[in-house]
Fold this protein.
Amino acid sequence: MLLNRYLLASLIFTLPTVSLANQNAIKYSPQALACLDEYELNNFELAFNQCLPLAKQNDALAQYVVAMLYKRGKGVKQSQTEALKWLTSSAEGGYAASQLRLGKMLSTGAAIPAEHDKAFYYFNRAALQNDKEAQFLVALCYQNGIGVVQNTKQAILWYNKAVNNGLDAPMLTNIENTKTATIKKASHQNDFVTLKLAAEQGNTEAQFQVGLHYANGQDTAQDDAQALYWLQQAAKQNNKNAMNYLAWMHMLGLGMPQNLTQAVHWFVSAHENEQALSQFEINAPSQNALKAQSQTQYEKALALLEYNNDDSDIEIAVKLLEQAAKNNHPGAQTKLAQLYQTGNGVTANKEKARQLFERAAKNGQTEAQYALGWIYFNGEGVNKNIMQAYHWFNQASLYGGARAKSAKQFVRSQMSPEQIAAVDKTSEKIAKK
């Protein structure tokens, strides 16, 4: 089923990070924000000790952090039972990220029995908080009648909301390809037998579509082995959609044993191929292709860092982040900076961390702006500079939520009126550019 395949992929690709985006209805205590900071700095034991008392007081953000620490076994002995308990409490407390993750678990039967009506309930609650991925999943539920009565109009409504919010889910392209192929098939009365004949004659698009048919059980029995075969045939002819699909099949272990190295290979190959074709056709690198390639490298690096602990996987992740950062991907620059800041997988280097944070911050990455504020305030690998700290907290506070605003006010309280005026004047000049 297409929904479950998307959910399985997203459970792998979605890291247990904590996001304050789309949580405007909830006001976070300074204590919860402080333990969140420790979690993001990989100070897991400290984060757990700070968050647990707050979680017991029904702080939804703290409950989510505690759940993720139990899930990962970081700062506390791993316990999926405790993770589920705190995740459920956080979801009931209104935290959208918890609602989304719990909905996925209930939909796929991952760690708990599948209950599609409850899954839809949590997806819907998160979607109403403007979580774009939850909106997409609500659309899929309505489209397929999973956990709710099938309703095409509602599916379209929620799908459009997700797209308008900038959804970039791993499976979205393949879903669109499947829909397009179905429409094309209906308009040309092109049945599966004809399509397979074209595939056998070497038509790469037909090979890709036959692979999709087998993968989704469309017009034929579902068969991952056949899907794998035809997608490989298409990939050999540089079909990037086939490469993308092969990547997540390797990631999920569909039709073959799970192989994250091969998954990364196919994701990167798909976008390298896209870039090569663009260069051949217009004799210059396509910015869109580079952007897509960098985003893929970034996502795969995050997956490797989260779900694998051996040195070879971390080494691959760092290389992917370096490639994406070189192409000016702000998320990759930020994550790589965090690795150099903490010495996780690389030799700690505060100066290199600062440089990467600064590049990402200038690209508008609020997390990097926030980190850079503390670097200048504390003088970490650089001369302490309260005006630079205030500048970056000020930039981060525009989109970075409560903790950035709190940090800005804290630093502001230690500045003279002249210093504040000077920074505000500089910020105004930047805003006008």
The chain has a mean pLDDT of 76. The chain has two domains: 2-157+166-173, 174-371. Residues 214 and 221 are 7 Å apart (CA to CA).
